[in-house]
Design goal:
- The protein contains 13 helices and 14 strands.
- It has helices at 5-18, 48-63, 80-94, 123-132, 151-165, 178-182, 188-207, 234-245, 264-267, 280-286, 317-327, 342-349, 359-364, and strands spanning 26-29, 32-35, 37-40, 69-71, 104-109, 142-143, 147-148, 170-176, 211-217, 251-257, 269-273, 276-279, 290-294, 332-338.
- An eight-stranded parallel β-barrel has the order 3-4-5-8-9-10-13-14, surrounded by five helices.
């Protein structure tokens, strides 16, 4: 059971008719109707207090009609982010407030992610006791002491994520910061071989309907110059996806930082396609990929900039920053906003009541 065209369209129509959400707040992507703001769940501590805040944030955001995109990762708060998302979704489903088909769920794997409190701060003990000794992966499969692309490890994490989220399927599974974590330790050739093995595993999971799509969640690898040690050539990545999955491969999404300080995904022409240079967003369009963008507020750092965008109908700096990030390119599905406090949620979701900015409004926003 994945997010469906019918389910997401129903969520959209109910939001527009009953929740004062602007029709253009939703984007149609592969026949799904997805909110242009998604809920990110990265920040917080592995505490019961933050468990409650995350669970309530998920419920508030979904009930508002403004968000049907939920993003997480197995390593966020030692698996507790996934678990509270699962708890919140089950509560909403049992209340008949939503159905699973209305909500697009993405998570990430790759980082070592102990869940038991006895392993908090004791990563090496977890690796040897729970991974190596249980034959989940080999010592040499773990790079930098924190990351693995071994298919057996990725399968182990996928099964745990499904259990944590209390679902039978995941709409989008990202390989998490793969280049950023691996390329300091392996050669590019070795990395692309590992990527092929990981993508082959993802395609097998698509065949048995455990995931619908897969992608790369990145930090700098797709928005730096080609001489950077973490640089990834998107064309090579797509070629690997086609090799293992054919033209109907499941590699369809990229997550990348985007705000008006980190704007390289739409401004830097660093991707080569047949000897022509494109920005990441332009290259994504060439390959029929879409972007989810992260850190629109850069954990508050954007507020320190001497230049702030100004869009009509929005008042606060946070709203202006979110408006920029969701509007910066037509290949952007959602900008993922981390928020747990009620006042922040209320403030940020007001952006959903106005349309995304036009190209002309983007150009004039910084004047």
């Amino acid at each position: 059971m994945f997010a469906t065209e019918e389910g997401t369209n129903l969520y959209k129509e109910q939001a527009i008719s009953g929740k004062n959400i602007h029709p253009q707040h939703f984007r149609e992507v592969f026949n799904l109707h997805l909110s242009s703001i998604g809920l990110g769940t990265y920040l917080g501590q592995p505490t019961e207090e933050d468990d409650i805040k995350v669970r309530n944030a998920v419920k508030t955001c979904i009930k508002s009609g403004a968000i049907n995109v939920i993003d997480t990762a197995i390593n966020y708060r030692n698996q507790r982010a996934e678990r509270e998302i699962g708890n919140a979704l089950q509560e909403l489903i049992s209340e008949e407030a939503i159905t699973r088909e209305q909500i697009f769920i993405s998570t990430k794997n790759g980082y070592i992610a102990p869940s038991e409190e006895k392993y908090y701060g004791k990563l090496n003990e977890y690796i040897f006791e729970e991974l190596i000794h249980r034959y989940v992966c080999r010592k040499e499969d773990i790079v930098g002491g924190i990351h693995s692309m071994s298919p057996s490890f990725l399968e182990f994490q996928l099964e745990q994520s499904l259990k944590n989220l209390r679902v039978s399927t995941i709409d989008l599974l990202y390989l998490h910061n793969a280049a950023e974590s691996q390329l300091d330790y392996v050669t590019p050739s070795e990395f692309y071989d590992k990527l092929e093995a990981a993508f082959s595993f993802f395609e097998r999971m698509r065949d048995i309907n455990k995931i619908r799509w897969y992608g790369l969640a990145t930090w700098d690898s797709l928005r730096v110059q080609d001489k950077h040690p973490h640089y990834l050539q998107l064309e090579k990545v797509v070629d690997i996806a086609k090799k293992v999955g054919g033209d109907n491969h499941g590699f369809r999404f990229i997550q990348v930082p985007l705000n008006f300080i980190y704007h390289q995904a739409v401004s830097l022409k660093n991707q080569y396609i047949e000897n022509t240079k494109y920005s990441l967003a332009e290259a994504a369009k060439q390959f029929d990929l879409y972007l989810f963008t992260s850190v629109p507020l850069l954990q508050g750092q954007v507020f320190k900039s001497t230049v702030q965008p100004k869009f009509a109908l929005l008042m606060t700096k946070a709203q202006q920053a979110i408006q920029y990030s969701r509007s910066a390119h037509t290949r952007i599905v959602s900008t993922l906003v981390g928020m747990k406090e009620e006042e922040h949620i209320k403030e940020n979701l007001k952006v959903a009541t106005v349309p995304p900015a036009t190209q002309e409004e983007l150009e004039s926003a910084f004047s």
